Amino acid sequence: MQIKTITTYLLFCIALSIISCKEATTTALNTSNTLKHKAVLEYQIQSKLGEGSFWNYNTQELYWVDIQGKTLHIYNPKTKSNKSLVVPSMIGTVVPSTQSNKAIIALQDGIYSIDTNTGDLQLLSAVEQAITTNRFNDGKCDPSGRFWVGSIAFDETPHAAKLYMLDNNQNAILKKDSVTISNGIVWTRDKTTMYYIDTPTSEIKAYDYNDPTGAISNERVAVKVSDTLGYPDGMTIDEHDNLWVGLWNGSAVGCFNPKTGNLITKIEVPALNVTSCAFGGKNLDTLYITTATKDMGTEQLKQFPLAGSIFKAVPGVKGVKGHFYKE
């Protein structure tokens, strides 16, 4: 009886150990489910606050901005050349226009059209011109070619900013109030969902989106970004409607499945502050990534000497064509 009891106990312990091993293995597999890639240097430049990446599929060029450097950049990967247009104030983002050699930019005091050949500006909307404590930040166009852009207070005062939609007749319409740092914004391929980031919340919000009217409703949290990953910044979307997000203070781009909230791919970037990304190239299979030197100390700059540069990765998925502004 005693031997049987001991034998039974030993068998129980062995079974328990097997279960524990299986659980540990499952946990390890779940942890390692995130695919990892490494970005490589594409164009070396020490921008202060590189942002707003957008692939112009007509010209096969990457549009991007240096916010604090007050510069619109147009980079040609084929020739490795970078054209720079200095603007009068901080520039938050850029989107090409359907008009040839024109783009829409968000400056400190308003939304402008810029001639990409000459740099000449035309004011389209001065919607926040009177709010001198704010500047415009990130933005993109929706499927109908309306320009969505948000603001940020210079001192990042909580809830002092807003999100606007500039319609095709250049009317600026308030879409969201009480924002702190308005950042990434994208739409699904079926034009029914919009995703949006207010950075300090560490959340990617989802909205039901009505394309004919531009109306948004039913706000909910699609992704909660872990503090261990950094802060969500600029964002793009791929052919599967997964979200690719620059991670400020995270040295990476994270790809999230908005249906589950899970991180499914991580691209490691040799820069501390990763700000935005855009799928480009002839087949939209190359992810171009902007970075910044802002808020970095001397030791951090030594650790990340390529900070502020443009990087790229080929993650094995394709993006979708970005929407141009329709005037």
Automatic annotation (TrEMBL):
Alphabetically ordered keywords of this record: Signal
Every SMP-30/Gluconolactonase/LRE-like region domain range: 49-293
Signal peptide bounds: 1-24
Gene3D superfamilies per the UniProt record, alphabetical: TolB, C-terminal domain
Keyword NADP: no
InterPro entries hit by this protein: 6-blade_b-propeller_TolB-like, SGL, SMP-30
Keyword Chaperone attached: no
PANTHER family the record matches: REGUCALCIN
Family the UniProt entry places it in: Belongs to the SMP-30/CGR1 family.
Protein name: SMP-30/gluconolactonase/LRE family protein
